[in-house]
Amino acid sequence: MGARGGLLLWLQLCALTRAAYKAWIPNTDFDDAANWSQNRTPCAGGAVAFPADKLVSVLVRQGHAISDMLLPLDGELVLASGAEFSASDTGSHPDCSAGAPALFRDPDRFSWHDPHLWRSGDEARGLFFVDADRVPCRHDDVVFPSDGFRAGLAGAVRVRSVSALGRTFTRAEDLAAFLASRAGRLRFHGPGALSVGAEACADPSGCVCGNAEAQPWICAALLQPLGGRCPPAACHDALRPQGQCCDLCGAIVSLTHGPAFDLERYRARLLDTFLASPQYQGLQVAVSKVPRSLQLREADTEIQVVLAETGPETGGAARLARALLADVAEHGEALGVLAAAVRESGAPVGGGSAAGLVGGAVAAALLLALLALLAAVLLLRRAGRLRWSWREQAAPAPAGAPLGFHNPVFDAAASKERPPARPPSLALKADTAGTSHSYFVNPLFAGAESEA
Questions:
Q1: What number of CA atoms fall less than 13 Å from residue 159's CA on the CB side?
Q2: Are 101 and 48 in contact (CB under 8 A)?
Q3: What letters, b where the CB count within 10 A reaches 16 and e where it falls short, cover 267-303?
Q4: How far apart are CA 94 and CA 63, in angstroms?
Q5: CA gyration radius, the chain
Q6: For the chain, which residues make up each domain, given as ranges?
Q7: How far is 163 from 154, CA to CA, in rounded Å?
Q8: CA distance 212 to 244
Q9: How far, in Å, are 75, 257, 355 from residue 145 at the CA level?
């Protein structure tokens, strides 16, 4: 069985066992246009140059006619079946310019911690992963291309297994020997350390990803094309979920789970029961287990459900969050959910601009009207058409006369202390102090409160 066949078999086994895996996307193939400076492969009869000081393994799948080739000081060209290089005269190929040669891009530009460079086996329409979970977690199986690739490591990285060049490494000593070999040094570089040996996630409620310490590297790689800064969120009081590098608009539902909770079953429920509805189109959902916040110490972990608004319409995340609260109140015991809390982002940034302009115009119009009225009064006074005089000071009231009037609101009988009102139900909390609202529902008490 070839290397490619072994990789496909490994992916099929991962799918059958529901094992989480992440696959490395970029490669160092000669025939991939993204690896060349002009975003196209060298034309026939053109000159080719590789970075002189870079260590790289390049896979060649097709035949190429070139006029010149500048090779690196160390590296290799792996020729697949049917691939070849032949010499060609530049003048016989008018589509090749006589200028600089085609440059193979820096193979060290790919970082392990870049979320853009990984593809998850759990991808589905309507689902996304927070940035830290897009990079391999400690319980994941990691799959690399069968031949040409190069990944940069920073910090300590530990995963369940690594598949590369048709081999699968599950023991730390075997992977260490591969990384020290020439084949390993051609494909992995950097000051980081890669190891395997973590157990697969056997908890039906899910496992924490374990990339909290690596998140600074993850965010730095993610935001490098943007100059290291997050784009501004399109709403007030934006939210930043655990594991996310930048703020987003929508809602976060935090679930306190019991031993009966099943993460995959709940994720499927979100897709089939809620996201399939037309009213929630344009929403994306991320479901993961995260460490519980320091303010709540009843359990070590909780389930974070992120509802992100990606379309121009707003308000769908808030509606879906309230629907999930109602779902927990009705089916929480069957789902293994003990309690739920919600946080929502504020209004869209541009939502209050029109109202502000209208309010400002009304205030300005009222001010002008008052100034005009004052000016008219002064003119009439000066012309003698308007007169006024001060009324004499009122004489003091005779002794014994009443000094006011009777108000039954403050009557002695009416002012007796009333019993305190019954406090509102704790099954649903709303924070109305600002534009960001939070709610809490506990299905264990929902039935008792409805009977009271």
A1: 23
A2: yes
A3: bebbbeebbeeeebeebbbbbbbbebeeeeeeeebbb
A4: 19
A5: 34
A6: 27-103, 231-347
A7: 19
A8: 10
A9: 18, 38, 55
What phi and psi, each to the nearest 5 degrees, are found at residue 65?
-105, 120
Half-sphere exposure of 219 (CA within 13 A, CB side): 17
pLDDT tens per residue, range 257-287: 999 999 999 999 999 999 999 999 889 999 9
Q: What are phi and psi of 338, to 5 degrees?
A: -90, -35
Phi, psi of 69 (to 5 degrees): -145, 125
Largest distance between two CA atoms of the chain: 124
**342-356 residue pLDDT tens:** 999 999 987 544 333
Taking Cα atoms as reference points, which of 71, 21, 82 lies closest to residue 49? 71
* Phi and psi, residue 290, nearest 5°: -130, 160
Mention the CATH class of domain 231-347: alpha beta
Amino acid at the residue 269: R
SS (H, E, C) the chain: CCHHHHHHHHHHHHHHCCCCEEEECCCCECCCHHHECCCCCCCCCEEEECCCCCEEEEEECCEEEEEEEECCCEEEEEECCCCEEEECCHHHCCCCCCCCCEEECCHHHCECCCHHHEEECCCCCCECCCHHHHCCCCCCEEECCCCCCCEECCCEEEECEEEECCEEECCHHHHHHHHHCHHHHHHEECCCEEEECCCCCCCCCCCCCCCCCCHHHHHHHHHHHHCCCCCCCCECCCECCCCCCCCECEEEEEEEECCCCCHHHHHHHHHHHHHCCHHHCCEEEEEEEEECCCCCCCCCEEEEEEEEECCCCCCHHHHHHHHHHHHHHHHHHHHCEEEEEEEECCCECCCCHHHHHHHHHHHHHHHHHHHHHHHHHHHHHHCCCCCCCCCCCCCCCCCCCCCCCCCHHHCCCCCCCCCCCCCCCCCCCCCCCCCCCEEEECHHHHHHHHHC
Please give the Cα distance from 204 to 4 (Å, whole number).
Answer: 32
Q: In the structure encoding, which two tokens stand for residue 36, read together?
A: 């060349």
Query: Do 437 and 344 meet the contact criterion of CB atoms below 8 Å apart?
Result: yes
Q: How far is CA 383 from CA 132, 225, 374, 379, in A?
A: 79, 73, 14, 6
Name the stretches of the chain with pLDDT < 50.
Answer: 1-18, 294, 296-298, 352-363, 386, 388-436, 447-452
Quick one: CA dihedral 138, 140, 143, 149, positive or negative? negative
Q: For residues 317 and 310, what is the distance between their CA atoms, to the nearest angstrom? A: 10
pTM, two decimal places: 0.73
Tokens, residue 167? 């081999």
